[in-house]
Every structure is written in C-alpha cells, then in structure tokens.
Amino acid sequence: MSQMPQQAAVSKCPSCEEPLEPGDRFCGACGYDLSVVPARPEDSPPLAIHGVVPAPDDVDWPVARDSDGHGHPAPVHAAAELPGTDSGGSPLPPPPPAAPPSAPAVPVAPAGAPATGVRFDRPGEPEEYPLQAPDPRLTAEPAPVPGQAPAPEPAAASRQPAPAAPDAAEKVCVACRAGRVDDDGYCENCGHAQPRERDHMEQESGPIAAVSDRGLRHHRNEDAFSVGCTALPDGAPASVAIVCDGVSSATRPDDASLAASRAAGETLLGALPRGTHPQQAMHDAILAASQAVNALADEPATAREQAPHQNAPACTLVGAVVTAGLLVVGWVGDSRVYWVPADRTTPPARLTEDDSWAAQMVAAGLMNEAEAYADERAHAITGWLGADAYELEPHTASFKPDRPGVVVVCTDGLWNYAESAEEMAEAVPLDAAARPLHGARVLVGHALDGGGHDNVTVALLPFPAPSQGAGSA
Description:
By secondary structure, this protein is an alpha+beta fold. 18% of the residues lie in helices and 16% in strands. The protein is built from nine helices and twelve strands. Strands 1-2-12-11-7-8 form a six-stranded antiparallel beta sheet. Strands 3, 4, 5, 6, 9 and 10 form a six-stranded antiparallel beta sheet that branches. A hairpin with a 5-residue loop joins β3 and β4. The termini are far apart.
C-alpha cells in the first residue's frame, strides 16, 4: 500500500505559513520546495524509567542554544528582567518599580541614606529589609487644575493621631492604664468600670486604725466607719471608732451606713471634750446616727412613685470609746466588739450581744448558740437604724479592764470567720496594739481568705488610750 508523501501531510508552508492543498509539491504563494521538509519521526515516544527519559545512544544531540552547556535548560526570564538596548546599542535604563495601586506611598529617603519601610501591622516598627526608594517622578503631586478643589489627602495608618495621654490630675483607668475616667466611673478608652472609692478604705488616726473592703462576693461596699482621737476636759486622751453595716435588703444601704457613721463619730468627738460621760455620749451618738439615716427616707414624691415597693434605708451600728481607764461600747444590730488582752494567756471576751433571731433564741433558752447560728434565720436582725425600725433601743455598756489589750470593732463580714472570742483572739496579730493598721489589714485578709462572702470592716483601738496621738481627728 502506497503511503502519502510526507510533504502532503504539511498543512502550511514552512516559509510563508500559507495554507497548502493536499498533493502540493511547491507553495503557491512563495514557491517554496516542499520536498525539502524533513519527514515526521515515527510516533514511538520513549518510556520514562523512574521519571527519566533515556536518550538514544546513537544520536549526537547538539547543545541547546539556551542551556547552561550541560544540557540543562537555561532559567526562564520575563522580558522586564533582561537588559535591553536602544537603537544605538546602549543599555536601556532600568524601569522604575511600580507600586501596588492600593499600597500607601512610601516616603522618599534623604539622599545618601538607606530607605526603610514601615510595617502597618505594627506602626513605627522598622521593616526587617530595606526597601528601594521610589522614583520621585512617581510620587510627585500633580499640578492643581484651575477652578478645581484640591483632592483630599488620603488617610494613612501612620498619620492617625495617638490618643492623648491623660493629665496627671485626672484618674487613669486601672484596666488599660491609658484612658481617662469619666464622671460616671467608666474609662473613655476601653469602657471598663472603675473600682469605687469605697471598695477598699483604710484610715489611721493616731493610735487607732480601720480598714473596710468590699469582699469577694458583693458588687459594692455597704459598710462604713469613722475613727478619731480627742481629749477629755482633764486632758486625758480618748479614742473613738464607729462601724456601720448597711442592710442589703433596704434601699441605699451604702448611703445609710455612711450617714450613720459620720453622724455618730462627729457627735462623740464633739461631746467628749465638753465633759459628757463616754457612755452618755455613745447613747447620744446612736440617736444622732438614727436621725441621719431617717432623713434619707425623706425622698421626693416622684421617687416614691417610681419605686413604691422599696423600703427605707437602714443599717446597723457598733462603736467603742477608749480612755485611760474606761472602755465604753454601744450597738444596734449584729455588728460586734471583742476584747483581746495583750497577754494571750488570759481569756478574751465578746462585749456585745447581737440584735438577731439567733440571739433571741439563745436568750429565750430555746436553742444553744451552735444550734441557733446554724439556722438559716440566724442573721435576721431584730434591731437596726432606719425610718422603718420597730423601736430604737440603743445598747451601751461600760468596762474597766485591768490589763492592756486591743478592742476589735467589726461587722459580721469579719466575725463570721472568727465567731468566738477565742477565734478572734487567735486571728488578731500579737503586735496589733503597736501596729493597728497592720493588724486591721491582717483581719480583713483573714476574712477574704475565708471566702469574703460579705463586706468586711474592722477597727482596732489599743487599751488604755495612749497619751500620744491625742487631739482632734
């Protein structure tokens, strides 16, 4: 069987690319001799062995023009990567690098200085590798067109102003440590609510000190205290401490405790220098505190209409007056006063009786103390300061200790974790009389370590009242 000539299988002229007809021996356009076209090799591709195509041994393959001389093809280059020449044979200048259309312009570095880039994910941090300075012709601003408003300057991340630092007199956020704190108690930068001023309070007045803490479970501190030193008419020193605990089920308990503590403290510090007996002064101070709390219930009619089911503000109160030879205590509610002698071999004592359901059960002989305070109704108070109190019965008592010691005035937020006198004496540091502020901090820490379920407030007064530190608080 005859075969078709090889040239007949060529569809285009190898010279001019003119289409050919079957059987043409010459190109009809340029006259190219189609018989010189080499025959197409047989369709028998070599098999690859392990990915390598073996070359025939009897063929002397020429070295490829675009190779490295060892048969390996030369690397492929884009046209822009190869140097060019002009019509005179001189090399062309390299084209300026084109910046991405969305990338911000890189400032031109000064002459003779290496240009560096900026990481916009970390403003102000230099790039690890230097960048080539752009062509000034590409960064030059176009000339303004007459009658046309100038284009707005594009905003860059590096041009955004940093938040101004707060003044030294302004409060700084405790969370971000950068933003200002507004009048509502929130950070203007991160929005974090700031701790209230009453969340933790400490005060030292001469030889006495007091500490109050919000605790670990309550959202605010509803306790308050007042401490101070004064002198009796004969010049003998006197120390005063008042501790109040707001009734959480009442309206504005924090305001009630603050008003009561201030009124009672001011009354005592004013009455004692005039010669009023400390026990009578304590009684009058409790009455003054009651009036201050009652005044909080005098709200406008509109406030009562908005919250008709709210009861009057209320709190409890406990206080102590220490002189050179007399110890006077007064209370309404379930806050307590403990006596802890300096000689720990002698017994301590609790000097107050709670106005509570548990105390009533024990006094009536219906339960022992362990059973009464284990009941869920134990801390229901039967006496408090407030406009809705059943009947105000201030309790006062006087003692004449025969040895030095420390008087502990505290709310139930502390004595819940040291209920008996022995437990309280064990928690009081041995140097509490010499370092009352440290001792008060230790006792508050004792309550927090125990769980801190309530607000914790404690005041420490050394007995007898030392002569140093006397004076108006």
